[in-house]
Write a structure and sequence with these properties.
The complex is a heterodimer of chains A (about 230) and B (about 625). Chain A is mainly alpha-helical. Helix content of chain A is about 65%, strand content about 0%. Chain A is elongated and about 80 Å long. Chain B is about 40% helix and about 25% strand. In chain B, the strands form 7 sheets. In chain B, strands 1, 2, 3, 4, 11 and 12 form a 6-stranded mixed sheet that branches. Chain B has a 5-stranded mixed sheet with strand order 18-13-14-15-19, with helices on both faces. The two termini of chain B are about 55 Å apart. The chains are: A mainly alpha (about 230), B alpha+beta (about 625). The interface of A and B includes residues 67 and 97 of A.
């Protein structure tokens, strides 16, 4: 699917007055709420280009403006069909806002929609360049666990703790690097959209983003594990 | 169409409010006793008729086994969920009940929605009396942390009471609406709602937009089984243990005295909000007097665990909103339990600011419901509530693990689509189990519903059914399925895990209509008896006065006969007869009243000069 296609709306006619609706939320002729085409793109729903850097204040403003119009509150006195349409559109609005307001869920949505979000074949496997550090971390975690089981004397435990905390800080730094890398690819993606780049160029960027996302979720799990172990110790 | 109202269906009290056009604000509607608070108590008479509110509360002391309070705690719950509470409740649960609790009250058996419907119908009656018009639509409030089944049960109660439920609104959000209207607030608001049986915390933002004010809830948390009731239980537990120790008396054998004790302790609790110490004096059923001084300090220590339990949800809600306590601009206190000084100081200390409690904490939720009712009814809106679902929605996958499909604190309505297929050849159905909760395993989450998608037999993986899970603006789940190969919409028969089916509700509706007449009769009888009672007292007083001597013997005999006839009628259960006898007594005492009037006039004129008259 091309970007321009995703932005363009499916043209159709109003269920009530048969006027052309151009896929808008409301019929431009009679003002009736329109059925939601299946698989409506979240970016298109907000009338936004499929860029990954987006102004959250602007997104929020659009979210609020659309909420006023689409919320079921407006349709309490309408017929059942219109009430259903409002429920459909309003839920889609909220789903779309939830997905787009956060940069990570935004890129995950984009990739999933393009069929490009592929979790690593083995999510548990460490990225090769991190192997050594992960190995050390796991060793420290094992030591902490066995020290805890053995009742652990205070000094040894404290030393282990501070070692783990240092390792945790290291991985948190790695996480920031991944986020910075992602941010860089987002910029390339946005530039590619502006330039109307071809399928191949975009696909390459998406593959890169997918890799970074996998790496990110791997490190995040690691950090969460350490936090949990430190919390228990 | 009739009127629209807002109803706070509370654990201990319920209220009904409306939008008063004249004053341009919401107002609570008083009942026959002039009170806006209707005790959420329902009592069933020996003949099966039902009494609600204050008269029912009085029966807690005399007919505790056929009188139910705090029914909200049973809404949308199974028997296994309420084992602990059932021990304290004086009424009985039908042993045959399973996923919907059935309460035995005298000779009749009710589900919690039916009992709640009695309360709603009573309030509806108050409003109809007040408007001299029918009331047929309502916004009803629920604890923000209510799950799907508890919400559905509340909606069912509305339907059983003959009300179209326009919307279920979360209690803290309703309170925020009332406060926002009152104070024109902006910014981040935390609503701490500690009621009779439930605790909620909601974090929301009030945003001014070109179209009007948006109340956007960021996060909500709570405990649907934590409230003033728990504090009462703690006090009652202490007192009962002491009575057992000091007097060797087990109050379990005296359900009425037990209720009496609870009432005395609740009174003490209320007093302790204003006084440093109170003394409870409780005469025991087998003789003896239990005297107990309770200091504020001792009270605080006893209830500290309950107050501490509220702070867990507060912290979780803030974390979900990604906020620190100091970032909250305003804190609002709602619910009767926030009158307790320890609650106020705990909240104030945590947020580092004095909480708002300007509006009556008992009424504010009902007032907010009335605001929302008006918004929906009038179509003229300058306010919009964007609320969230309190719990994550998930489906059970392989190995009993839950896959979350709609995360908690998602703005509602919210939806998620999932694709299902067959795993083995010629499989004809796909079983789906929907759950609510934050835990990883299905067994630790709340089961909402199970259903089976029918598919035509074929090779594994051929069938492709898309299921849309949608949480509507009431926080209630709707499910729709679609066969992707044929594009056909599929109807889904969802069997709620804890709740009534449509057929059961239909049946109850029929039954309630049957009983409605009887309930109406009961109410009429009570009112007629009360009137007869005051009539008899007035007559007695008149007959004791000087003017009675001026009656001739025939008149006196007529009065005595009418009094006897009224007494006899009041002992019966025909309210029409009571009314007739009241009228007859009125007739018979006409001359006596005249005599007394003359006398009163004469007294008033005494000592006054003619010119002054």
């Amino acid at each position: 699917m091309s970007v321009t296609q995703a932005n363009a709306t499916t043209s159709s006619t109003c269920w009530s007055c048969r006027a052309a609706t151009a896929g808008q939320h409301f019929c431009p002729a009679c003002g009736k709420i329109q059925p939601l085409p299946r698989e409506t793109d979240y970016f298109a729903f907000f009338g936004l280009p499929r860029k990954l850097h987006l102004e959250t204040a602007e997104l929020e403003k659009r979210f609020h403006r659309l909420s006023w119009k689409l919320h079921p509150d407006n349709f309490v006195r309408a017929g059942e069909y219109e009430r259903d349409l409002s429920l459909d559109r309003a839920s889609q609005l909220n789903d779309a806002y939830r997905a787009l307001r956060d940069p990570i869920s935004r890129v995950e949505y984009l990739l999933a929609r393009e069929g490009m979000r592929k979790e690593g074949e083995n999510k548990q496997q460490a990225p090769p360049e991190l192997l050594e550090e992960v190995f050390e971390l796991n060793e420290s975690l094992d030591e902490l666990r066995s020290a805890r089981q053995a009742g652990g004397d205070g000094n040894a435990m404290a030393a282990l703790r501070s070692r783990l905390e240092a390792e945790q800080r290291n991985f948190e730094e790695r996480l920031r690097e991944v986020d910075a890398d992602l941010d860089g690819v987002f910029s390339q993606w946005d530039a590619a959209i502006d330039a109307g780049a071809g399928e191949a160029a975009r696909k390459k960027l998406m593959i890169r983003m997918n890799e970074l996302l996998n790496r990110r979720s791997y490190i995040r799990n690691l950090v969460a594990n350490v936090q949990r172990e430190l919390g228990e110790a | 169409m009739g009127r629209v109202v807002g109803i706070d269906l509370g654990t201990t009290y319920s209220l009904i409010a409306y939008w008063d056009k004249a004053s341009g604000g919401p107002k609570c509607i008083p009942g026959p006793y002039g009170e806006t608070l209707c005790p959420s108590v329902v009592s069933v008479d020996a003949d099966g008729s039902v009494v609600v509110g204050e008269p029912a509360r009085r029966r807690l002391l005399t007919q505790s086994d056929r009188t139910i309070y705090s029914v909200k705690r049973l809404m949308g719950r199974g028997v296994a969920d309420v084992q602990d509470e059932v021990k304290i409740f004086p009424f009985r649960i039908d042993p045959a009940s399973q996923n919907v609790i059935r309460v035995v009250l005298g000779a009749r058996i009710f589900t919690p929605p039916e009992i709640s419907a009695f309360i709603l119908r009573e309030l509806k009656g108050w409003a109809e009396e007040f408007f001299r018009d029918t009331v047929d639509r309502a916004v009803i409030t629920v604890p923000a942390y209510f799950n799907d089944a508890q919400r559905q049960a509340t909606k069912d109660a509305g339907r059983l009471a003959g009300l179209e439920v326009l919307r279920l609104v979360n209690e803290p959000t309703a309170a925020a609406l009332a406060y926002g209207l009152h104070e024109q607030r902006r910014g981040l608001v935390a609503v701490y709602d500690f009621g009779g049986g439930t605790f909620d915390i909601s974090i929301l933002k009030l945003i001014a937009t070109g179209e009007g004010d948006i109340y956007q809830v960021f996060s909500t948390n709570g405990d649907t089984h934590l409230g003033g009731d728990d504090i009462d239980n703690v006090l009652q537990g202490i007192a009962r243990a002491e009575i057992r120790e000091q007097f060797g008396l087990d109050l379990n054998r005296h359900p009425e005295a037990n209720q009496e004790l609870r009432k005395a302790l609740i009174h003490a609790k209320h007093q302790l909000s204003a006084m440093p110490s109170v003394t409870v004096r409780f005469p025991l059923p087998e003789g003896g007097l239990y005297v107990r001084q309770i200091t504020r300090m001792e009270f605080d220590a006893a209830i500290q665990p309950s107050i501490d339990r509220t702070m867990g949800p507060v912290k979780l809600a803030l974390a979900d909103a990604k906020l620190k306590p100091a970032q909250v601009d305003e804190v609002v206190l709602v619910g009767g339990s926030t009158r307790i000084p320890l609650v106020r100081s705990t909240v104030e200390e945590y947020f580092g600011r004095r909480p708002h409690a300007e509006l009556n904490p008992d009424e504010v939720v009902a007032l907010g419901a009335a605001v929302q009712a008006d918004i929906l009814e009038s179509g003229v809106k300058n306010m919009l509530l964007l609320d969230v679902t309190p719990l994550s929605l998930g489906i059970e996958t392989m190995g009993g693990v839950v896959a979350k499909i709609i995360p908690r604190n998602s703005t509602i309505p919210a939806s998620a689509q999932e694709l299902f297929t067959t795993g083995v050849e010629n499989q004809t159905g796909i079983d789906i189990h929907v759950l609510q909760g934050e835990r990883e395993l299905a067994k630790d989450c709340r089961s909402l519903a199970r259903f089976q998608l029918k598919v035509p037999p074929g090779p594994a993986g051929l069938a492709r059914v898309e299921v849309k899970f949608l949480i509507d603006a009431n926080g209630i789940l709707q499910v729709a399925a679609r066969d992707l190969r044929t594009g056909e919409e599929r109807s889904v028969e969802v069997q709620p895990s804890y709740g009534l089916s449509d057929i059961e509700i239909e049946h109850m509706l029929e039954e309630s209509i049957e009983y409605a007449e009887q309930d109406f009769t009961e109410r009429q009888l009570i009112e007629a008896r009360n009137e007869g009672e005051s009539m008899l007292r007035a007559t007695e007083k008149s007959l004791a006065g000087d003017q009675a001597a001026e009656l001739d013997p025939a008149e006196r005999r007529a009065i005595d006969a009418a009094v006897a006839a009224l007494r006899q009628a009041m002992a019966g259960s025909d309210y029409k007869l009571v009314r007739t006898r009241i009228d007859e007594l009125n007739q018979a005492t006409m001359r006596l009243a005249e005599l007394m009037m003359n006398r009163a006039l004469a007294t008033a004129l005494e000592g006054k000069r003619v010119a002054e008259v």
